[in-house]
Amino acid sequence: MSSGHATLLRNDSTSPLVRRCALTTEQVRAKVTGMTGLTPAGELPAGVPQIVAAIDERIVSGTWPEHSRLPSERTLAEQFSVSRPVIRESLRVLSERGLIVISAGRGSFVRRIDPASQGASAELLARRGAITAEHLIVARTMLEAEAAALAAINRTDQHIERLSELLEQFDHSTVPESADLDVAFHEAITVASGNPVIQVMFASIKTLAHGIVLRSLTDRKLAGAALPLHEVILTAIIEQDPDRARQAMSEHLGAARQFYGTDLNQPLADVLRHRAEIAPALGSVLRDLSRSIASTET
User: Fold this and answer.
1) Running along the chain, 298 residues long, what does each successive block of 10 average in pLDDT?
2) Which of 7, 58, 114, 249 would be 148's cystine partner, CB 3.0–4.6 Å?
3) Domain boundary among 79, 110, 141
4) CA–CA dist 133, 116 (Å, integer)
5) pTM for this entry
6) Helix (H) or strand (E) holding 107
7) Are residues 201 and 274 in the same domain?
8) Is residue 89 exposed (0-12), middle (13-18) or buried (19+ Cβ within 10 Å)?
């Protein structure tokens, strides 16, 4: 547990956090805006983001499994040394994010998360280990092959210039820099598609896509098979050949399925941790990204 969480767990009534969090329910509510959508962390009262992160960590790690009942508000208030209204607001945020269900008179329960659940997201599912490398590769192929075809139809000179600049930078980049450039190239294609829904869909998996890209770039054989297809994709877009752009993108993303081996069916965060052992020169980068995917930050 982080030092911030340790501070929260102090049973010291004189701690600054306790004094800051001695609010009524009405005062807590007054500090929160955007009640019809997800409340941004910056708009939450003092103490709430830390408590949300601590409880979130216990849920995602499985310490509190699905359908289990959370401790009472009183117990949580004592554990975190804050007032019950602050705990109540923290639980409301967790409910808003789809992690728990609050049942009047019964308490709060860890919610089972499936892809169709309210509040579910690709990143949340990945943090719970429910998204494998293959899941992401298949989904990206479905999304980005069509994005490439649309880009070939709708691209402008500005789009071509941006895509060309990104590929030119590959020759002078490190592996971590290449991963950033690779994701930027794919994102630029979604922009060139002219379809805002495709852009939003890609943005929702961008962090996970970065993980797949970094894993792929540490595999010399895979990189040798996949990277040259960037030029094929770009040429097809320039020449406004949607069929060839679609096919090249499918082959480019599908190459991972030929080389990943046992990584293919493992949770993405585990894939990156495993790869850190095989590619020690990039171990710290791979581990950092693995932690980012499994992070409690929301």
Assistant:
1) 36 36 40 41 67 86 87 92 92 86 90 68 76 93 98 98 96 91 97 97 93 93 95 98 98 94 91 90 88 64
2) 249
3) 110
4) 20
5) 0.70
6) strand 107-110
7) yes
8) buried
